[in-house]
Known about the structure:
The protein is α+β, with helices and mostly antiparallel strands. The chain folds into two domains: about 20-35 and about 115-185, Probable tRNA modification gtpase trme, domain 1 (Gyrase A, domain 2), CATH 3.30.1360; about 40-115, Heterotetrameric sarcosine oxidase (Alpha-Beta Plaits), CATH 3.30.70.1520. About 20% of the residues lie in helices and about 35% in strands. It has helices at about 50-55, 90-100, 125-130, 175-185, and strands spanning about 25, 30, 35-45, 70, 75-80, 85-90, 105-110, 115-120, 145-150, 155-160, 165-170. Strands 1-2-8-11-10-9 form a six-stranded antiparallel β-sheet. Strands 4-5-6-3-7 form a five-stranded antiparallel β-sheet, with helices on one face. A hairpin with a 2-residue loop joins strand 10 (about 155-160) and strand 11. It is elongated and about 50 Å long.
Amino acid sequence: MLRWSLRPFSTHKGSACMATTDFNAGPVTVLSIDPLLVISLRHLPDAGDSLSMALKAAGLSGVPCPGQVIGQSPWALWLSPSEVILLANNPTQTNAVKTALADNPLACAVDQSDGVLALELQGQQLDDLLLRLVDSRSLPCTPGSAVRVRLADIAVILIRHMPDRLWLLVERPQAQYLTNWLKHAGAALQP
């Protein structure tokens, strides 16, 4: 079962003018996911076995295929031929991966948790909202799929969990800009 707590998110710690809270983008609910650890696993082509063993150390069955998300806390998603993103609620899982890759000259684990904002978007009109911000051919349609796309001209990762539930990962400094775009696009939708 997925566990997280909800909290306000901010683009800069202690900056009241940049902070925002969980909100509605029209009929779509937007929630901050916390804690969510975000680890980038970068690797060279010859590191496939090492990457697979590292993900198994975190309790995953292997390496995701292109566009695929595997697992249920932790999750691993394919981002590119040389990068897999590990998402976890438990630092024990991320530490196992970091330890497995610590002395590997062909792969590394980069903790991006502090620099990434994770949002959950949910609602029956989720796709209607996203179609106002993303090329329709870019949306992950199937649960268990993920893509990196341009949303309002910024790079984001979209992870489809259910037809009406999706996670959005964005660099934390883009939070206010993204929030404004989600609210703007959501205002045009009929509840």
